[in-house]
Design brief:
GO terms for molecular function: isomerase activity. It holds the Pfam family MDMPI_N. This protein is α+β, with helices and mostly antiparallel strands. The protein folds into two domains: about 150 residues, dinb family like domain (Four Helix Bundle (Hemerythrin (Met), subunit A), Up-down Bundle); about 70 residues, Nonspecific Lipid-transfer Protein, Chain A. It is built from seven helices and six strands. The strands form two sheets. A four-stranded mixed β-sheet has the order 4-3-5-6. Strands 1-2 form a two-stranded antiparallel ribbon. Strand 1 and strand 2 form a beta hairpin.
Amino acid sequence: MPAPTALPADPELLAQLLLARRATAFFAHELNGLSNVDLDGDSLLPGWSRRHVIAHVAYNARGIVRLVTWARTDVETPMYVSNAARDSDIAAGAELDRDALRTLFDVATIQLDAAWRRLTPETWSHPVRTPSGREIAVSETVWMRNQELWVHTIDLATGASFADVPVEVLDRLLTEITSAWATRGDGGDLVLSVTDSRDERRFGDLHSAHPVVVSGSLAGLVQWATGRGGSGVGSSAGTPADPPRWL
């Protein structure tokens, strides 16, 4: 996915676009390694096959295209008509012919790239709303796409892991997850301590008088915090409990 041709001189946004390009290649590589029979196998998400994950990622791209179109035209275009409509699209996409499902991902990716390319430097700051109603600049859709691709590639259950995800993505994921816990009043005294870094790094309630410290590698902590297992993660309270809800 080549970098867009019209961008503000914003190094952070440029970096996020490059990460999105890498994330697209990561997902595509794992998808292309699956045989047509493999597509019918289970994903890491309860109740979802790999087909559901692929359809979800494809329709996420189309949803982001609608937000980018909103920013470009100044005509409100919600990401999804409703949660029910989104779920219905995913279910229908999962039933597509195997070749059609692969094409759905490829075409949706191209459409999103083209939509980002059509933005001018000024419209990258145009406000849009997420499905939860949160107002963001359309430039934030680049991180939204990064998050979807890096995490859901692992959900394809091909053997890819959070250890394959760039450190900067893992850092931002863990920061946002623990911030979401705090905003909702979840997480209590949880403190997440990264053990595979030269400098000590901690996330969560750093001011707690009685912290429950969950420790592990950065990749392991993100795996645990996203609710995808706790391999290599330990806790000062014994075996780590299930984490609070992420999204």
